[in-house]
């Protein structure tokens, strides 16, 4: 905002006093006519006042002068440190507020398909997987002629990712299919918890969609025991499991090997 004082008013008031603009506005001060005429004879004057924060700026400048004076009076044997600035810099400079915004970008996972392998699978209680209906997989003990009912897993292998297991373990993304069928195990949310199911799908390709992550499991092999677990990629901490009782559906659990069996042995064809 600009303010231009009337020249007649300025000249009449200047007969007895000189007007200054200080931090708090007009500051009239007495000054002799002789001095005034000697310094500004017949000169048109325009004063431009910009609305800002002069009082605060003047106070900051004063604090800076006082602070520097104090520093000069300190004993010379003491080295100047960054901590010496803390006492007065907050008064000199305007505080700057920052707003921290947390954001994340979750891109679609990419699983690069490499090849497929066939395996027989047994839990550590020697139960086999049996396809009892078009969409129902159960685990039970098989002997003699009935052993032909067991299913073989067609495991689609994807490029390994960085291992997160402990010493002696490694992880590989896989999709678990039933050999001879286009059926693959998937992990989906049902109510409050995930559930395991069989779906018809074509998984022998790269997986680049979040939606298809339900078919991906991390094969976690324990090399010393030569055993394997399958952890859901869509629901970390949930593992494919069988019941301690025979002829129960193959499911998924977040408490592996406690009230169920989540450890398997694979025999490659």
From TrEMBL:
PANTHER family: INTERLEUKIN-1 BETA (PTHR10078:SF30), INTERLEUKIN-1 FAMILY MEMBER (PTHR10078). It comes from the Eukaryota. One of its GO terms (molecular function) is interleukin-1 receptor binding. It is found in: Cytoplasm, Cytosol; Lysosome; Secreted, Extracellular exosome. The keyword Secreted applies. PROSITE patterns: INTERLEUKIN_1. It comes from Falco tinnunculus (Common kestrel). Gene3D superfamilies: 2.80.10.50. The keyword RNA-binding does not apply. Keywords: Cytokine, Cytoplasm, Inflammatory response, Lysosome, Mitogen, Pyrogen, Secreted. Monomer. Belongs to the IL-1 family. GO terms for cellular component: cytosol; extracellular space; lysosome. Residues 1-94 form the Interleukin-1 propeptide domain. InterPro entries: IL-1_CS, IL-1_fam, IL-1_propep, IL1/FGF. Pfam families: IL1 (PF00340), IL1_propep (PF02394). One of its GO terms (biological process) is cytokine-mediated signaling pathway. This is Interleukin-1.
């Amino acid at each position: 905002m600009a303010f231009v004082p009337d020249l007649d008013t300025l000249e009449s008031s200047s007969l007895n006093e000189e007007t200054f603009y200080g931090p708090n506005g007009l500051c009239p001060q007495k000054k002799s006519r002789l001095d005034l005429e000697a310094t500004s004879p017949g000169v048109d004057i325009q004063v431009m006042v910009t609305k800002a924060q002069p009082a605060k700026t003047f106070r900051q400048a004063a604090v800076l002068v006082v602070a520097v004076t104090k520093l000069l009076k300190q004993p010379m044997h003491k080295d100047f440190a960054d901590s010496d600035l803390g006492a007065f810099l907050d008064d000199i400079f305007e505080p700057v507020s920052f707003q921290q915004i947390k954001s994340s970008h979750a891109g679609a996972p990419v699983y690069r398909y490499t090849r497929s392998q066939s395996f027989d699978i047994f839990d550590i209680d020697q139960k086999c997987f049996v396809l009892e209906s078009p969409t129902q997989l159960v685990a039970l003990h098989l002997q003699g002629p009935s052993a032909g009912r067991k299913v073989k897993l067609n495991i689609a292998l994807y490029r390994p990712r960085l291992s997160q297991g402990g010493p002696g373990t490694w992880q590989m993304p896989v999709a678990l299919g039933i050999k001879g069928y286009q059926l693959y195990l998937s992990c989906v949310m049902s109510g409050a918890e995930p559930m395991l199911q069989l779906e018809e799908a074509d998984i022998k390709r790269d997986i680049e969609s979040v939606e298809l992550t339900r078919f991906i499991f991390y094969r976690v092999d324990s090399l010393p025991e030569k055993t394997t677990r399958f952890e859901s990629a869509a629901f970390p901490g949930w593992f494919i499991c069988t019941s301690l009782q025979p002829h129960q559906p193959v499911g998924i659990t977040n408490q592996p090997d406690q009230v169920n069996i989540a450890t398997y042995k694979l025999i490659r064809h």
